[in-house]
Amino acid sequence: MSSLKFAPTGRVADLLREGQSLWLDSISRHLMDSGELDRLINETGVRGITSNPTIFEKAINGSSDYDADIVSLSAQGLSASEIIRTLMVRDVQRACDFFRPVYDSSKTLDGFVSIEVNPLLAHETEASISEARTLHRMVDRPNLLIKIPGTPEGIPAIRQLISEGISVNVTLLFSPEAYRQSAQAYIDGLTAYHAAGKDPSRIRSVASLFISRLDTLIDKKLDALSGGSSDPSVSKKAKELRGKAGIANTRIVYELFGSLFSSSDFKALAKAGAAVQRPLWASTGTKDPAYSDTLYVDNLIGPDTVNTVPLETLRAFADHGTVARTIDRFTKGAPLEDPHRILDALASLGISLEAAYNQLITEGVQSFNKSFESLIESTERKIASKKGA
């Protein structure tokens, strides 16, 4: 457990002066046991941590660190899925304890750890609510965020959980409209919570917009146009738009954030102590080697935001990132490109952003499902091998 030595210096700590918190998109026993997480908190300035089924699959399947517990829990009669949930809860509890000093010193702004509901429930509202309540009870830490996907079925679950006083990380958001719905669900849930005579200042939420995945998909479409069009102007425009969709989409979401949380609906809640639901930039590791390895940190810095990064991106930014407000202001003396113009330009080439958003949310849910199913299968194999030994 981290103690409040907490004297970070450097670029990650400097982000705070621009109003952005940097969280780590990784969790494992090794990270905590090795002392690395303690160093990242106290020396580098990491202020929270997120997890998902894929991250846990890599942690549990990628080492023998959990094998003894798997055998022990199996001997107690737990199923593979119950064992996985127990292992996740234990890691998240420990991580919450590491970040508790940040949570306290930041007056509950930061220091959060996220755990995701079973991804197989992404399209089941009531089952997601029930699972979220169970995880909230099992972890039993004030600095916990329950991750609920921003699917049509997830939106009412978000509203209900917030109304019950359970803090939520809305995950797998891709479109501005899905973001708007998640933010409104937070506001509606807070309104119900406050109307019941409860203090809204104790609730926190983030809305996680996935970025690099959008660029990966759109860039493939642009590459097909630039290489396959007989019109030189189309080819030229397609090449110019590579790597711009994700940042433009994010900047439009940030505009929406400003509008929604300055509305009359939220102002009354703010007077009662309610906090804004901060936008969280996720999937910010650069996937295309042609782009800067700090692309999705350098260009998305601004107040009331969180950026959650994989360890390699954290190290790259700490080494050579640039700290300046870039989410909505001029960059290095040059005018900020109009994000709406960029998305309009994509549409003029016949690229449907709506189709891309729909494809990405489907693929995102499927990817997490696959990771979770893989984790169940590997856990069952470990149990069977130990029984046969």
From TrEMBL:
Keywords: Cytoplasm, Pentose shunt, Schiff base, Transferase
Cellular compartments per GO CC: cytoplasm
Record-linked InterPro entries: Aldolase_TIM, TAL/FSA, Transaldolase_2, Transaldolase_AS
Pathway note: Carbohydrate degradation; pentose phosphate pathway; D-glyceraldehyde 3-phosphate and beta-D-fructose 6-phosphate from D-ribose 5-phosphate and D-xylulose 5-phosphate (non-oxidative stage): step 2/3
Enzyme class: transferase
Reaction equations catalysed: D-sedoheptulose 7-phosphate + D-glyceraldehyde 3-phosphate = D-erythrose 4-phosphate + beta-D-fructose 6-phosphate
Listed Pfam families: TAL_FSA (PF00923)
GO biological process: carbohydrate metabolic process; pentose-phosphate shunt
Subcellular location: Cytoplasm
CDD domains with a match to the protein in the record: Transaldolase_like
Positions of the catalytic residues: 147
GO MF annotation terms: transaldolase activity
Domain of life where this protein originates: Bacteria
EC number: 2.2.1.2
Role noted for this protein: Transaldolase is important for the balance of metabolites in the pentose-phosphate pathway.
HAMAP family per UniProt: Transaldolase_2
Family: Belongs to the transaldolase family. Type 2 subfamily.
UniProt-recorded name of the protein: Transaldolase
